[in-house]
Amino acid sequence: METQAAVLSHTAHPRPYTGSRPLRLETVQLDEPGPGELLVAIDAAGVCHSDLSVVDGTRRRPTPMALGHEATGTVKAVGDFVTDVAEGARVVLIFVPSCGLCGQCTGGRPAQCRNGARANAEGSLLSGARRLQHAGVSLHHHLGVSGFARHAVVDRRSAVVIDDDVPAPIAAMFGCAVLTGVGAVINTADVRPGESTVVIGLGGVGLAAVLGARLAHAHPIIALDPVPAKRDLALELGATIALDPADTAALADLLPTGAEVTIEAAGRIPALELAWSLTRPGGRTVSVGLPDPSQRLALPVTDLIGQGRTLLGSYLGDAVPQRDIPRYLALWRAGKLPVELLLTGTRPLAEINEALEDLASGQVVRQVLLP
């Protein structure tokens, strides 16, 4: 079938993206779903820094690629051997497909699935197949989703079935921002009631971490970002106090012995160094942001050992998506996880480059594209 998708022909495009226009909305050929796969009509797709990092070359992915990894849609057809999903079902798409068989999956950490990681690095579906072509050339899939499109073929294991009551722009954010940010607090850091928690970097993932900290009854919750509007939003979401990270005097007064948990969601080494410096002896530092792979972190080893501190990486919030998305949606329905406050706005898919530029400017939280 023919559909439309936002195609990235090569990486390392210069800003402003409204001028260089790295993504082009193309008419592409999309194969029918193969065994164990779904054809999904995309209803909404969030624009995330992980998309931006492919465009600017920070995260190296094979090209040409149909971009987009945070999306929701409606199942239009199912491949052979799919017995638990019907046409018409609504799904949230997951950017780490899990095979269910490798050591990471059977050990309860599907976000670290070896076969999913291989497929994502190769730009294929979990089976190794590619279902997209443009002008006779095979297109790579972005993290098994390729959600900046009108339709996508995905592996069944890249989809979580949801109820019909969730608006599409809200549902899309559960595929990355919510799973990653809330999960970093609940699953990775295992924040307990009354634990002091700092969140550094208030994009979609960082603000979702603030929501997760409130959900875990952390106290105080200290949110750090240089953008005043994001600090204001963090307070609305439940932060106890929000500061510019450059305000070192205020941080020293608030945390004379450091915080029990710090969450770094900025994707910058200085932010991770700050998170480490704000963690008290015996505390936990969690890194969620994805910096350039060439960057290195240097820490005093005596702090790690002598102070009994822990440094944790968190990918996809250490989520088990088939378990966690229904749980988080139930909390959203109950008013305990107001994810809608993360939504800066919606815009048509044709404005993808404008959305990328607004994201790169640092002034928006979550924009959602509507095909």
UniProtKB/TrEMBL annotation:
Keyword Ribonucleoprotein: no
Enoyl reductase (ER) domain mapped to chain residues: 19-370
Superkingdom: Bacteria
SUPFAM superfamilies: GroES-like (SSF50129), NAD(P)-binding Rossmann-fold domains (SSF51735)
UniProt entry keywords in alphabetical sequence: Metal-binding, Oxidoreductase, Zinc
Molecular function (Gene Ontology), one example: zinc ion binding
Span list, region Disordered: 1-20
InterPro entries: ADH-like_C (IPR013149), ADH-like_N (IPR013154), ADH_Zn_CS (IPR002328), ER (IPR020843), GroES-like_sf (IPR011032), NAD(P)-bd_dom_sf (IPR036291)
Cofactor field: Zn(2+)
Cross-referenced Gene3D superfamilies: Medium-chain alcohol dehydrogenases, catalytic domain (3.90.180.10), NAD(P)-binding Rossmann-like Domain (3.40.50.720)
Family that this chain belongs to: Belongs to the zinc-containing alcohol dehydrogenase family.
PANTHER family in UniProt: NAD-DEPENDENT ALCOHOL DEHYDROGENASE, S-NITROSOMYCOTHIOL REDUCTASE MSCR
Protein name per its UniProtKB record: Alcohol dehydrogenase
Organism (species): Thermomonospora echinospora
Lineage of producing organism: Bacteria, Bacillati, Actinomycetota, Actinomycetes, Streptosporangiales
